[in-house]
UniProtKB/TrEMBL annotation, chains A, B:
This is Transcriptional regulator. The keyword Transcription applies. Keywords: DNA-binding, Transcription, Transcription regulation. InterPro entries: HTH_LacI, LacI/GalR-like_sensor, Lambda_DNA-bd_dom_sf, Peripla_BP_I. It comes from the Bacteria. Residues 7-61 form the HTH lacI-type domain. Coiled coil: none annotated. CDD domains: HTH_LacI, PBP1_LacI.
DNA sequence: AGAGGCAGTGTTAGCGATAACACTCACGGG
DNA sequence: CCCGTGAGTGTTATCGCTAACACTGCCTCT
């Protein structure tokens, strides 16, 4: 039952026959305590099932040991993995993580989420919301709480860690060109995502650098459904031999559309994705894609935030390299 | 910069020329305050950018407004969605959510996670970890903090909300039998998951009730890879015409294996999954599966926890119905 | 031998909020 | 006209902890 008040430092002190300060010193390892005294205190702690009151501690120290994460209310593989990466790193460092989700990535909801977290007295905030709007929203945020972003754009006003989108997209495009295609089509993500921009830019510049014609961009919204629609649209396209799809989910939809319209992959068309979701190796056919180490991103993000909390100014951009994973969808015909 | 101390109630009071209690009353809406006074106080609040100190408040009220969620360190669609469902419901009710992930669902790590959360002074805890071991672990947990589980088993010692696994599996099995199959094979999940047990039991009992022979169970681990292996294994099986796979990821792997071994779905074999991940409609072929409303599960889970926190004893098991989604993988041949 | 230092412990004063109660009026009823 | 009542406000105690400093011995150094 609830209602049995918790033991306090004073209760422990009384039972151990010492002052509450001595108990505090034992608990926190601050200051010297005789071994015998320490043992007595610990016995009392054990007996009373004492647990420090974090509110009282926070009140006097000004530190809560809490971090806030603003997360997209989504189960997209990337954001979800990043969240766990951050949580793991934070927990190892003794921080707890409070999560607030936003359904729409507009300025108001981000600001609300941050405000909510500040009211919770978090020591620092990570924003996972890789939209253009997010970057802009962050530019207007009050700066009295350390803030870092993940997956953000190059002009973000806060430190950012992310997988190197440009590099990944360049690699996959070059991989396709190296297979002998005259050009590579692109199914992009939503225009307001920063990752979309990076991937699209890399694709475009890589084509240009190789003297290839740059086809019009087909745009999706990351969902398989939109990939499917893009696939139906591209199916009628003459001269289509290679497609770089901006994420694996859309690539799945596109593969489905191609299959329905009698286009064989990889025989007729090569297809590559981005993300390397765990399922990508079991698509039909298994998908060539770009692997992102989201856990590492989470780790670095936490590290940057920790630096900020400690009062240092970390580097502003911290890129994790991407890895090209070649599978059958760009395999021998 | 950090370092500019936050304004306190007293600061606001001074600026507004009232006592700190009056400010407190304005902030919390407790007790009567003259309209003119309130306005003056609010102006001071605004001017000083005052934000209540949650630690001080928690210290004196004994309420932190914090809930803890023990989550599987996984990006599985179900657990991730449930997390967001809980977070949404909690936020609407004014609670914040602290998340702690566990990588292995054994008793020790669950106990550690709960201990961590208790140290954070959460008012209640939700455990998302639908393993047999979890249920057992919870049986031994100290009961002085309200605790509910999600996706748990029927013998769990705490309130539980979940999608009705049994019902969903029964429906999908009956759907397959109704298509004229003499029996239905089953690729099950890991034996230590509660959901695995429910789905498997429903499948078995449904077959028996219809007088169908019960084939041996092939077991996977939820991953596409394991589904693929199950598919390779089943491909050689004589008389195989229908397979119920315990989740969509494994079904994807199985479809891949069937495709490689020349088995046509749905022409030669019917396949159904479970979960209705957003991609399931774009598998090859689109997958018949069972939809689970994880958001609703999250909502109900929060509601149960709120009841517990309020000191009431909610019903012990709260089941959300499952929905059968029929697609081409069990379609006309 | 006296001063200084340090291990080991205690005392006191807040941190910033709410709870509980006290006080001052103005007003209405007997 | 006096008193009870309730609106509006203030005073004080307290939540559980840590910071800062004070105190007591005992040991070491000069």
């Amino acid at each position: 039952m609830t209602g049995v008040r918790h033991a306090s430092l004073t209760d422990v002190a009384e039972l151990a026959g010492v002052s509450h300060m001595t108990v505090s010193r034992v608990i926190n390892g601050t200051g010297p305590v005789r071994a015998e005294t320490r043992a007595r205190v610990l016995a009392a702690v054990e007996k009373l099932d004492y647990r420090p009151n974090s509110a009282a501690r926070a009140l006097v120290t000004g530190k809560t040991g809490n971090l806030g994460v603003v997360a997209l209310d989504s189960t997209l593989y990337g954001p979800a993995s990043t969240l766990y990466g951050i949580e793991n790193a934070a927990r190892e460092a003794g921080y707890s993580v409070t999560i607030t989700s936003v359904s729409a990535p507009n300025r108001t909801s981000i600001a609300d989420a941050i405000e909510t977290l500040r009211r919770q007295a978090v020591e620092g905030i990570v924003v996972i919301a890789p939209h253009v709007a997010t970057g802009k929203a962050l530019a207007h945020m009050p700066s009295d709480v350390p803030l870092v972003a993940v997956g953000g754009g190059e002009h973000a006003p806060v430190p950012v860690s992310a997988v190197d989108q440009y590099d990944g997209a360049r690699r996959v495009t070059e991989h396709l060109l190296a297979l002998g295609h005259r050009t590579v089509w692109h199914v992009a993500g939503p225009a307001d995502w920063l990752e979309t921009r990076d991937r699209e830019l890399a694709w475009r510049e890589t084509l240009e650098r190789h003297g290839a014609k740059v086809p019009r961009v087909v745009r999706g919204d990351w969902s398989s459904r939109s990939g499917y629609e893009a696939g139906r649209e591209l199916a009628g396209q003459k001269g289509l031999t290679a497609v770089f799809v901006a994420n694996d989910q859309m690539a799945l939809g596109l593969l489905r559309a191609f299959s329905e319209t009698g286009i064989a992959v990889p025989k007729d068309v090569h297809v590559a994705g981005f993300d390397d979701v765990p399922e990508a190796a079991y698509f039909s056919p298994p998908l060539t894609t770009v692997r992102q180490d989201f856990i590492e991103v989470g780790r670095r993000t936490f590290r940057q935030l920790a630096e900020r909390i400690a009062g240092r100014q970390p580097q502003v951009r911290d890129l994790v390299p991407a890895e090209l994973i070649v599978r059958e969808s760009t395999g021998p015909r």
